[in-house]
Design goal:
Length: 337
């Protein structure tokens, strides 16, 4: 038995959501943690249940959360479920007394997110959100450099994301993707969102409207402003999923990410133009596997999820402000509490 597993019991959980992303979780992520056992699977759609059974051979597949938890006695659930069902599924799982790891975006409004985080707290349950971009190896390195003021006082920040990806181009890219970047802004700078001005590529009058990208001005507390471009059209080299960050301070320029598709590149350029590459150590487990590890450990009583729901509600507040700004054309304050 691997040294890190000594003393760890098995954690039984159910998986809710058997669509494309749920299939990926089942095939590529959940099997990587030997102390995690999925004992039941749930999807509201008969077609999705049949397709999942045909692909995986799983036999314990249910139509509802209640049936699955009742039949398996699992203590926890992971939910890569359709965005429109996030709030209802979270309520079902938490009311039933099970811990929950829910896919992003937690919800589309901060009030619902806060209410659900409060429900988990009252019931003493672990509730995490899969905001997996925090678990790219460059993320803690950049956060640490900023904490240590490696480029002095930060004056300007730009973030560019560009990929030709149908899952973003043919969706509401703010909901699908910008939530990751809002969350990374909070994580990297340790500041909260204050106001957002968002110009979507095509009109976004409701959350159901698709848009392939947007230009945004994001104001964080302490007077820091981020120019953020989210793009899935036009010819250009692909950025890595967390994007390309340029963070300019009084004593240097910190960059994270490089096109094409290099999420490990971190460097500091000094005022004289000398470039120093920063070492980026591997993480024990990369992105979703790392999120799952922390969640399962928290369920076992050690540590906390990488993105606790109560914290993630503040990232949701930024998404809510971006959607309001996209709809109204106005600079929109981010709700604080
Ligand atoms: N973290 C990431 O980087 C990342 C990447 C891709 C997708 N996602 C997220 O994963 C989730 C799932 O993505 P997807 O593309 O598979 O979604 P999807 O829209 O295809 O839906 C997944 C499944 O949820 C089922 N479902 C809907 N309502 C339900 C309910 N009330 N109870 C049970 N099942 C229900 C649907 O039948 C469907 O099979 C979304 O939240 C998405 O944002 C995250």
């Amino acid at each position: 038995m691997a040294a890190e597993l000594v003393g760890r019991g098995m954690t039984d959980l159910i998986q809710i959501g058997l669509g494309p992303w749920g299939l990926d979780w089942a095939a590529n992520i959940l099997p990587r943690l030997p102390d995690v056992q999925v004992t039941g699977w749930v999807d509201a759609s008969p077609e999705a249940r049949a397709a999942f059974t045909a692909k995986t051979g799983a036999d314990n597949v249910f139509a509802t959360v209640e049936e699955a938890l009742g039949a398996t006695g699992a203590v926890a659930a992971i939910a890569p479920v359709a965005i429109g069902a996030h709030a209802a599924v979270a309520r079902q799982v938490l009311e039933a007394g099970a811990h929950l790891l829910l896919e992003k975006p937690f919800t589309l409004d901060a009030a619902t997110a806060r209410e659900l985080a409060g429900l988990a707290e009252r019931k003493g349950l672990v509730f995490g959100i899969d905001q997996n971009y925090r678990i790219f190896p460059g993320a803690p390195v950049v956060r640490d450099l900023l904490e240590r003021r490696a480029v002095g006082a930060v004056r300007r920040v730009s973030l560019e994301w560009h990929r030709d990806h149908a899952g973003v181009r043919d969706a509401n890219s703010l909901i699908e993707l910008a939530i990751h970047h809002f969350d990374l802004m909070r994580y990297l700078f340790g500041r909260e969102g204050m106001a957002i001005t968002c110009v979507p590529v095509t009109p976004v009058r409701s959350a159901q409207d698709h848009t392939p990208g947007a230009s945004l001005i994001v104001e964080l507390d302490g007077g820091l402003t981020i120019d953020y471009v989210l793009s899935s059209q036009g010819v250009g080299p692909q950025t890595p999923w967390p994007g390309v960050w340029r963070i300019s301070g009084d004593e240097g320029l910190l960059t994270w990410g490089a096109a094409p598709d290099d999420h490990r590149a971190v460097s500091i350029t000094d005022a004289a133009g000398n470039v120093r590459a920063v070492e980026v150590p591997e993480l024990p487990l990369f992105e979703r596997a790392g999120v799952l590890r922390a969640f399962v450990d928290a369920v076992a009583g050690t540590g906390e999820p990488t993105s606790p729901a109560a914290d993630n509600a503040h990232s949701v507040a930024m998404l809510e402000a971006a959607l309001t700004s996209a709809r109204t054309g106005e600079r929109t304050k981010v709700e604080q509490w």
